[in-house]
Amino acid sequence: MTLALLFPGQGSQAPGMGESDLDAFPELVREADGILGYSVRDLCAGRDLRLRDTRYAQPALFVTGALAARARFADAPQPAFLAGHSLGELTALHVAGCFDFATGVRLAKRRGELMASATGGGMTAVLGMRVERLRELLAESGEESVTLANHNLPDQLVLSGPKDALRRITPLLAADGRVRCVPLNVAVAAHSRHMERAAQEFAHTLRGIPMAAPEVPVIANVTAEPYGPDDAAELLTRHLVSPVRWWETLCLLADSGVDRIEEIGPGEVLTTMWRKAGPHLSARSAADVHALPTTVVPPTPPPPPPTVRPEHPVRFVAGGQEHLGSEAFRRDYGTAHAYAAGSLADGVSGPAMLARLAARGLLGFLSTVGRGIQDITEDLERLTDVAGPYGLALPSTAATARHLDDVVRLGLARGVRHGEASAAAGVSEPLVRWRFTGARRGPDGTPAPGRQLLVKVARTAQADAFLSPAPPALIRRLVARGELTEEEAWAAERLPVASDVCAEAGPGWLTSDLAGPVLLPAVIALRDRAHLRHGYAEPPRVGAGGGLGEPGSVAAAFLRGADFILTGSVNQASPQARTSTAVKELLAGLGVDDTAQAPAETLFELGGRTRVATGGTLFAARADALYQAYRGHASLEALDATTRSRFEDTIFKEPLSAVWERLREDLAPEQRARADRDEKHRMALVMRAYLTRATRLALTGDPRGRRDYQIPCGPAMGAFNDWARDTPLAAPENRHVDAIALALLEGAAELGVVSRPAARTPSAA
Question: What is the DSSP string of 349-413?
């Protein structure tokens, strides 16, 4: 296996980038702050708008890329090649040992200032046209001031020039309906003759800086060949006025045996290009490659240069864990890690839990099942000042359809960006409205969703529905009612319903006939086929949930290809969980065998089941007895005397008739009318009353009802208890929800999972 490291350029920057690496190297961050005259941490956090400015974006990308490389080099495989796109080439040269960190910061700062001073220009992406045809049309147009700036892929090109000239030439290029011209949101004509003055000034800057020969081959944008020992100053100067020959760079890497790349820095732009290049690389002819060297022998990978070695042992947040899971997940959710804490019903995952997670760059979802709209509104009010990521559970089961609609409307009104749902009720109008309200056509012409939607699936058929675009008829109904605009509908027709699908197999709370090792790869395969079939610009992500209670199971999930993990049971015993101390103590004493399936309250009449704790509580056995009685009898009156007596004496502690009369008073008129005429339904309401009371007893910790506590829980809790035994995390008071997350991820990293296998993306995508 031959590895290349790729470093992205301007346009990949995003608020929150590089947070863990900035934390890991405080001395270097202070050094960068002193050179730049401002806080890199504040800049990267996006606390102001300067990150969009070329003068600030370039040094920010250099600093975060250089620090990410230092973290990555700890125990990871060493590369045979390095390459960077535009500004990323500066980072690649630093990583190759050509100059030290401080010099790189100064060069990135100066480069950004000089490029920003060349005003009046712009750039336009040309998609769907070959470079030969583009050159013919440029010659025919007579617009000599417009030049090719980037040759990224055979059909992905970028032009630079004066904005007026770019506007004049666009109709000529777009005359073929298959070609799209997309103006880029930049105010400079980069990599063109309009940078000549900036290049002259940059050459003066470079003249006094000593440059060492690269210790790892670095492919130059200008030549698409490796840097020579004395080429750095000359090529960095020419870089500003010359096209980025990225397609030729990819050809060189492929011809040199590179079969694996890692993108070091924010985003996955270069990773996506590498994947899209695959079929072109395998099918290209000699005419497709210009000035490609004919003899390139990859050298034996050398040890990492001293300039990129950490000054101290790599800490967890800066080392292997940073490479677990999907970079795109972290980007889209604004998290430090590809990790989410799933929602816990009945308000157990409340504001305290989400705030604690968000403070550490971790994602959690606010509980809405079993909560009224007023309660949810108050919880969202408490989260108003939380700066980190959090989301909202969307209660999408057949029994909560009306509640789902209310929750979606509330979440949209409050500006919540991330949603979590179950696939149990299928693709519904409220979920599609959630995902695509605010969707738009992006600056490059591709659809951008309004929000993230993470959907938990227990079966492949569920996954397939959410990995596909919503049914056209459903989308048109939403448009007809004014709940989606035409632009939002356009995006909905071209994007999957879910941004993320979590394969939650048998060990989770959802009942599934498939085990995790079977369900996860099956869903990944479905994702790959959907990506190919629908031509998504970026594939939806697939994560793993269920049974993730110790680092081994987390490591296994990532090794099987999970983009992220979703935990549940283990978070209930944390101080931040909104449940009783008695329940937390009970959970902390469970073993892996101390759970069972029991009737689910919201799906009682349909036979729905959920997994609950059994250690110290008789709930599962008693709830199952009630369900069996419901199935075998037509009404409460049909119960035999022995069964009725047993229920009244040991479960309800009162006559069943008294339970019904109290329930009846609280029903809405239409519900009361149905129960009065439907004896079977009336029996279900009475049986469900025990399940409702069992949940309330657990949440309040009433000691008189301890044997009836209903505690949703999977075997992950017992696995965590076994793993945490004889550590500080054995005690519930120490199980802070963020400590649980970081302990699981750190443990997985220590097992050697420092780089997950690349997602298997279709070669024709």
Answer: S-HHHHHHHHHTT-EEEE--TT--HHHHHHHHHHTTT--S--EEEE--SGGGHHHHHHHHHHHHH
CA distance 510 to 343: 13
Kindly report the number of other CB atoms within 10 A of residue 477's CB atom. Answer: 14
Helix (H), strand (E) at residue 4: strand 2-7
Could you tell me where the beta strands, DSSP code E, fall in 558-604?
A: 565-567, 595-599
Report the alpha-carbon distance of residue 648 to residue 654 in Å, rounded: 5
CB atoms within 10 A of CB 485: 16
Nearest residue to 92 (alpha-carbon basis) of 193, 236, 288, 191: 236
- Among 741, 706, 724, smallest CA distance to 592 is for 724
Determine the Cα–Cα distance for residues 418 and 411; give it in Å rounded to an integer.
9
CB 367 within 8 A of CB 393: yes
The number of CA neighbours under 13 Å toward the Cβ of 495 is 29
Alpha-carbon distances of 71 from 16, 25, 315, 743, rounded to whole Å = 17, 9, 9, 19
Under 8 Å between Cβ of 422 and 396: yes
| Residue closest to 434 by CA, chosen among 451, 422, 448 | 451
- Is beta strand 452-457 parallel, antiparallel or unpaired with respect to 363-366? unpaired
Q: At what angle do helices 232-239 and 88-95 cross, to 10 degrees?
A: 170
- If one counts every other C-beta atom within 10 angstroms of the C-beta of residue 725, the result is 9
Whole-angstrom distance, CA of residue 65 vs CA of residue 57: 12
Q: What is the pTM of this model?
A: 0.58
Query: Are the CB atoms for 693 and 708 separated by under 8 Å?
Result: yes
To which residue do tokens 């405080």 refer?
A: 26
Q: Based on the residue annotation, tell me whether 86 is a catalytic residue of this protein.
A: yes
Residue 401's pLDDT is: 65
CB 532 within 8 A of CB 298: no
Task: Measure Cα distances from 95 to 40, 308, 545 in Å.
Answer: 19, 6, 37
Predicted local distance difference test score (pLDDT) of residue 394: 94
Flag residues of the chain having pLDDT under 50.
Answer: 284-322, 398, 507-515, 753-765
Which residues on neighbouring strands pair with residue 598, listed in sequence order? 610
β-bridge mates for residue 440, sequence order: 448
What tokens does 226 get? 């490796």
Bridge partners for 181 per DSSP: 126
**Secondary structure in 3-state letters for 252-272:** HHHHCCEEEEEECCCCCHHHH
Within 10 Å of residue 133's Cβ, how many Cβ atoms? 15
**Which are the contacts of 552, defined by CB distance < 8 A and separation ≥ 6?**
747, 748, 751
Say if CB 450 and CB 438 are below 8 A apart: yes
**Residue 51 is encoded by which pair of tokens?**
């990150």
Catalytic residue among 191, 239, 323, 531: 191
CA distances to 23, 48, 128 from 29, in Å: 8, 18, 42
Overall residue count recorded for the chain in this entry: 765
Radius of gyration (C-alpha) of the chain in whole angstroms: 29
C-beta separation of 341 from 357 below 8 A: yes
Q: Burial of 103 by CB count in 10 Å (0-12 exposed, 13-18 middle, 19+ buried)?
A: middle
121-127/156-162 β-pairing = antiparallel
Output the six-digit token pair for 440: 């738009």
- For residue 122, give Cα distances in angstroms to 115, 135, 144, 181, 202: 12, 18, 15, 13, 20
Looking at the DSSP bridge assignments, the partners of residue 565 are 339, 544
Structure tokens at 75: 């125990």
Provide the β-strand partners of residue 244.
150
Which ranges in 98-183 belong to alpha helices (H)?
Answer: 101-117, 131-141, 163-173
For residues 563 and 544, give the distance between their C-alpha atoms in angstroms, rounded to a whole number.
Answer: 8
Catalytic residue, chosen from 12, 20, 86, 422, is 86
Question: Cα-flanking dihedrals φ and ψ of residue 83, to 5°?
Answer: -155, 150
* Cα–Cα distance for residue pair 342/338, rounded to 1 Å: 13
Q: What is the dihedral of CA 97, 99, 103, 108, to 10 degrees?
A: -70
